[in-house]
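@here heads up, posting the sequence + SMILES for the thiamine diphosphate run so it's all in one place. Ping me if the SMILES looks off, I pulled it from an old spreadsheet.
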Amino acid sequence: MPERVVGSFHIKRIDILDEKGDADSALMPSLSEAYVRRMYELLILSRTFDQFALNLQREGRLGTYASILGQEASQIGSAFAIEKGDWIFPSFREMGVYITMGYPLQMLFQYWGGDERGISPPEGNHIFPLCIPVGTQIPHAVGAAMAAKYRGDNIAVVCYFGDGGTSKGDFHEGFNMAGVFDLPVVFVCQNNQWAISVPRENQTASQTLAQKAYAYGFEGIQVDGNDIFAVYKAAADALKKAKDKGGPTFIECVTYRMSDHTTADDATRYRSKEEIELWKAKDPVVRLKLFMEKNGFWSEKYQGEVEADAKASVSAAVRAAEITELPGGRDMFTYTYESLTARQKKQAEDF
Ligand SMILES: Cc1ncc(C[n+]2csc(CCOP(=O)(O)OP(=O)(O)O)c2C)c(N)n1
Ligand SMILES: [Mg+2]
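bot reply: prediction finished. Complex structure tokens:
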């Protein structure tokens, strides 16, 4: 018997907006000027939030914070494709997603300041609390997609994680179940090249991360994660496919973590200045600005207004978070258990 090929796959890659701000018209999704402006305004708002959070942490006014600098297009582009009723399972680095979904900025500052009430999503906000244990949100998201399918809800679930997350057992178990049950879930991986101090090539021998989906029987595609139009297109197509009963999709957004892992890290100890310079040239915000300028709807005046509005909203949110009275230690007994044991009741009374 001659050898035969019994399986093969290819990885599609989508690039639309290049570093000079020129878009490939063949792939460009149809977006109005107002829509593109809104995308840009959210990029600026998220970057402003991020800068404020880093500064506040340095002043001792916030706890450890995970910056999104450089990853804004992956987050905002994908979140733009999410519709009312869909559910989102983030990791810990998705402030751009929270902000795009209209999550109150004040609550995000409360959370990073140590007040857990900041991460109880307000009614109607379908985003789960951010998830610190790497990859553990993946089986949760798959479970939610299973429930949606079982109930016949016409929604999709979007699950975010990083390149490091694809090496976790949770990733493989979640992907397997998503594939076997053909679930309405879209996995968005921000491949930011690093898992703390571990570079991507030391962490997986896979040529692309996207191809990992094929092992579980569904499509994986790669996009330029600093290109908001490519990310948006891939996410919108995948969400539509999920709602049309076409099953799961894995989107690998190739991007870069411009900042330290968190404010508790110093990335100068393990990565080169040259690498950072290389990625600076691919800045997602500059790229969209150039596109808008070339298409006649960006000006210095507009930029000034967008920045001023962003600063005003973020400053107001910081003020509101800082004047909110902190919960007492006794509150942990209110939210952690459905009912208290006699011993816990006594502990609560004595607090
Ligand atoms: C289960 C678990 N193991 C280890 C850690 C410590 N840790 C926090 S973030 C991280 C790396 C995550 O890398 P990646 O998935 O690429 O996400 P990124 O931080 O780059 O956004 C690790 C190992 C953790 N939070 N949870
Ligand atoms: Mg990473």
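MO: The mean pLDDT is 97.
MO: One more: The pocket of magnesium ion (ligand 2) is lined by residues 162-164, 192, 194-195 (CB under 6 Å).
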